[in-house]
Amino acid sequence: MNRNLAAAVTVGLTVLAASAGLPHEAAHAAPGPAAVRPWHEDADHMGSGLAARMPAGIAHDSAATAAPAAAGTLKGLDVSAFQENVDWSSVASKGASFAYVKATEGTDYTSGQFSRQYSGSAAAGLIRGAYHFALPNASGGSAQADYFVAHGGGWSDDGKTLPGALDIEYNPYGATCYGLSQSAMVSWITAFSAEYRTRTGRYPIVYSTRDWWSTCTGNSAAPGQHDPLWIAHYGGSPTPLPNGWSTYTIWQNADSGAFPGDQDVFNGTAADLKTFAHGAYTPPPPPPGSGWPVISQGATGHSTTAVQYLLNAHGASLAVDGDFGSGTRSAVIAFQTGKGLTADGVVGPDTWQALIVTVQQGDSGSAVKAVQDELTAHAHPVAVDGQFGPATRSAVVAFQTSKGLTADGVVGPDTWQALVS
Questions:
Q1: pTM for the complete prediction?
Q2: CA–CA separation, 78 vs 158, rounded Å?
């Protein structure tokens, strides 16, 4: 069904249901999966779900205050139909080297701005690529990869075309994980990636956030074996990375800034970008010191959860929800003040090292819960009960072994750093 028609049917059914005194959900039941909601594809873009989860102004402020913690500082942008009439000459004059343009969503939407944006960015001298906004509940991964390739998402070894990108993130239409189980989501991503490679000869670059990846794939390491990573994080650092990747190729660090659309940094030099356009590229690892992630208000995910547990271990009384809001920021500032640290509310290396508590078998409390939550995020699941028993010790030893650390079951500074990174 055409999406505009689907939207009209949905609205009409909603009106009929309302006039009949039926629950709103009843109006959504009849059309089936493809027509249960109005569509807004032009507004769906890389990071739209992430930006929606940020407190007002945070995503914007981070663009101005965060120094790119990347091996390279090659700047770029990603745009969708929401950005009409992009002045690509101006973008290039401001220092952009690359761009990604939204091409498709699902299997029945193509951006009305795609051709103009894709050709315009190339004419201005940018190396550019196309991206696909995934709807895993609408159709299979292979089908969406085929649709993407057929509508602008292909790749050619011309030195100016980047491999296609799979934008897999928070569902803008409903349940965060699109109603798929973690194993089903991994299978969907694998199918998309495999089909894209079959059609183009390249693996797609995968765009996501650590939080979504952990929640919706169970922190699967499988795609990281071959798909490059495009990490989205507005907290001032590209780390921590999702499981399976030891580095990243592109970092989306803000939803606004010098360029239209979202702001990106390529992990490498201009020559490296051309290498990536031509074929396989191995980006450098995150720079020294980035093992301790830098997080601040607006951040979400397991690192924030660890901060909240650790603050509670030091006497705070925070609700541990993985959301770095104003309450968490106030608790960080109070902790930093008490420790004689710069009281800026940002958890960087110095604050992390003051927060961590060495724990081992027999210990209990909030610091142990932080360890258990991080172990689970790193695919070593244990109950988050605050009791450091034999099961937790075994998980710690397994994690330490996987990271090349001393496998003694004691969570000290090195193990803490590996857990939260």
A1: 0.65
A2: 20
